[in-house]
Design a protein that fits this description.
α7 packs antiparallel against α13 (421-438). The chain folds into 3 domains: 3-234, 4-Layer Sandwich (Glutamine Phosphoribosylpyrophosphate, subunit 1, domain 1), CATH 3.60.20.10; 243-419, Rossmann fold (3-Layer(aba) Sandwich), CATH 3.40.50; 439-585, Rossmann fold. It is globular and about 80 Å long. By secondary structure, the protein is α/β, with parallel strands linked by helices. The structure holds fructose -6-phosphate (F6R).
Length: 598
């Protein structure tokens, strides 16, 4: 949600900043701007996507060695040029770019206006520039610290002053990294912005501030005491953050799922044993609570089925946004698992905080290495799915489900039980089975074409495939703007059946499991009312042929693994329908990757 890049060094600065913004565009794309120091502050801003900023003629004139830039996803104030970052103080000496939310901005704005500051935008961020101006007397770091002590809320910040050869950055609840080069330094909200130049990064922790010059950096806490920053070597490659031959990141990421699953298993499944580096006494766990949002919440629901069945430990799954405020019953014998692709989701972070305040043990299941959640939990499991840039989450979802299954099997193993040979074999077979379903993408595309005019969809599944139905519906609505709902198939007759007519497509997850026959009865109920049926099955039978208008055959696997296979068919349906509707699936309206605000 919003992206920041900053640079200090000898390169031509505009291409570095614009290039970085393009890499960050998936985090927000309603307006963008840059500011470079050269005889004062040179600012160019534009409403719209990065290419519109890039096409501004003034940009060609800008030279300099220090600059910051921002791509925005609007929270306070509509997307327009004035509200775009960077924001300046009254004297146009200080520029800031900000991710996050200043919760007490109304009172701070009033205070500043009473002191004569002219605030020109409707954003909460602009007041940061004015507060720094208020406190500035030739020491930028000091002025920033005084400002940060006044601010309530979250920030990832980069700040420059026209007379100072440095960038100041700060973090609380919104990511900020320092990229270390040779005679040059980068700052960014996300490693993908700087991966073209360096793989050495430091992840700032909450309430840290850093002063960055061309050759050096110094990190402090808000008491101005020095703190160490651990340098990490990024494993992601440039190829991973480029689309390659794919039309969209989303499609690329759907096709990366066999490797993503292989990556999770690599090093964690050895000679029939699950190896996870978790500092956890599994015998002590009384109850598990999973907290997450959106797609990650759906994987959590599947996790509940898996963990309860495999370990017999009770599991609750909560929306992180609800958990954080409902005074949940949690204690030191409970384990709270936070699931998050980005590791930065504000609600999930707050839910973790709530869990920790009640002394629960915490685990993170996270994709982005070094992200805030990974800094806040007692221990964790990385997905290692590689960067997920498409706004709609795909490979992170299947990786999360796989990780939850490994976690459940690990508990079983640690409790002294053997993991069945059939399960171990099927884990090895899974990437191959995913490749089989991906080979059907053209077939699925043809089916999708029939639904480009639809305005509603129902997705139905049972057991482990009920959350898959929810996820299929979410994928469709996010990127095609078609209203879609997921239900447990048996719930259909308790209400949604009223919606069924010839205009209502219904997707059934009807792969083999204990409920297959019951799902067939549900299909009959839909057929009898004229609904159009898409069935995801393991095998075409004459009965399915009679009932379903369209059939997608997916490889058979163990019930525990079926969500991973089945959801891929639904990801492809959603992708192709959105593509037929000519929607930019990587940048669907109103959405942005990583929701770092409440
Ligand atoms: C859906 C999607 C969102 C995220 C949700 C949580 O495709 O991407 O629903 O799953 O915002 O994000 P993370 O997993 O980063 O915490």
């Amino acid at each position: 949600m919003c992206g920041i890049i900053g640079y200090i060094g000898e390169r031509e600065i505009v291409p570095v900043l614009i290039g970085g913004l393009k890499r960050l565009e998936y985090r927000g794309y309603d307006s963008a701007g840059i500011c470079v120091i050269n005889n004062g502050l040179n600012v160019v801003k534009k409403k719209g996507k990065i290419f519109e900023l890039e096409n501004q003629p003034e940009l060609k004139e800008i030279k300099g060695k220090i600059g910051i830039a921002h791509t925005r996803w609007a929270t306070h104030g509509e997307p327009n040029k004035t509200n775009a970052h960077p924001h300046l103080d009254c004297n146009k000496e200080i520029a800031i770019v900000h991710n996050g939310i200043v919760e007490n901005y109304h009172s701070l704005k009033k205070l500043l206006e009473n002191e004569g500051h002219k605030i020109i935008s409707n954003t909460d961020s602009e007041i940061i520039a004015h507060l720094i101006e208020k406190f500035y007397s030739k020491d930028l770091e000091e002025a920033v610290i005084k400002t940060l002590k006044l601010i309530k809320g979250t920030f990832g910040l980069a700040i420059i002053h026209k007379n100072e050869n440095k960038i100041i950055v700060a973090k609380r609840g919104s990511p900020l990294i320092i990229g270390i080069g040779e005679g040059e330094m980068f700052v960014a909200s996300d490693v993908s912005a700087i991966l073209d130049y360096t793989k050495k990064v430091i992840y700032l922790r909450d309430n840290e501030i850093a002063e960055i010059t061309k050759d050096n950096y110094s990190i402090k806490n808000l008491e101005r005491e020095k703190v160490d920053g651990k340098i990490h070597e990024i494993q992601w490659t440039i190829n991973q953050i480029e689309k390659g031959n794919f039309e969209h990141f989303m499609l690329k990421e759907i096709f990366e799922q066999p490797e993503a699953i292989e990556n999770i298993l690599r090093g964690r499944l050895k000679k029939g044993k699950i190896k996870l580096s978790l500092n956890l006494d599994v015998g002590q766990i009384n109850k598990i609570i999973i907290v997450a949002c959106g797609t990650s919440w759906h994987s959590g629901l599947i996790g509940k089925y898996l963990i309860e069945e495999i370990t017999q430990i009770p599991v609750e799954v909560d929306y992180a946004s609800e958990f954080r405020y409902r005074n949940p019953i949690v204690n030191e014998n409970d384990l709270v698992i936070a699931i998050s692709q980005s590791g930065e989701t504000a609600d999930t972070l707050a839910a973790l905080k709530e869990a920790k305040s009640k002394n629960a043990k915490t685990i993170g299941i996270v994709n982005v290495v070094g992200s805030t959640i990974t800094q806040d939990v007692d221990c964790g499991i990385y997905l290692h799915a590689g960067p997920e840039i498409g706004v709609a989450s795909t490979k992170a979802f299947t990786s999360q489900v796989m990780t939850l299954l490994l976690f459940a099997l690990y508990i079983k193993q640690e409790k002294g039980f053997e993991i069945e040979k059939k399960m171990l074999e099927e884990l090895e077979n899974l990437p191959g089975k995913i490749r089989e379903i991906l080979e059907k993408s053209e077939e699925i595309k043809k089916i999708a074409e029939n639904f480009k005019e639809s305005s509603n969809f129902l997705y139905l599944g049972r057991g482990l495939n009920f959350p898959v139905a929810l996820e299929g519906a979410l994928k469709l609505k996010e990127i095609s703007y078609i209203h879609a709902e997921g239900y447990p198939a048996a719930e259909m007759k308790h209400g949604p059946i009223a919606l069924i007519d010839k205009n209502m497509p219904v997707v059934f997850l009807a792969t083999k499991n204990n409920y297959s026959n019951k799902i067939l009865s549900n299909m009959q109920e839909v057929k009898a009312r004229g609904g159009r049926i898409v069935a995801v099955v393991n095998e075409k039978t004459s009965e399915i042929d009679k009932l379903a208008d369209y059939v997608i055959e997916v490889p058979e696997t163990l019930n525990y693994l079926s969500p991973i296979i089945n959801v891929i068919a639904l990801q492809l349906i959603a992708y192709y329908i959105a593509n037929f509707k000519e929607i930019d699936v990587d940048k669907p309206r109103n959405l942005a990757k990583s929701v770092t605000v409440e």
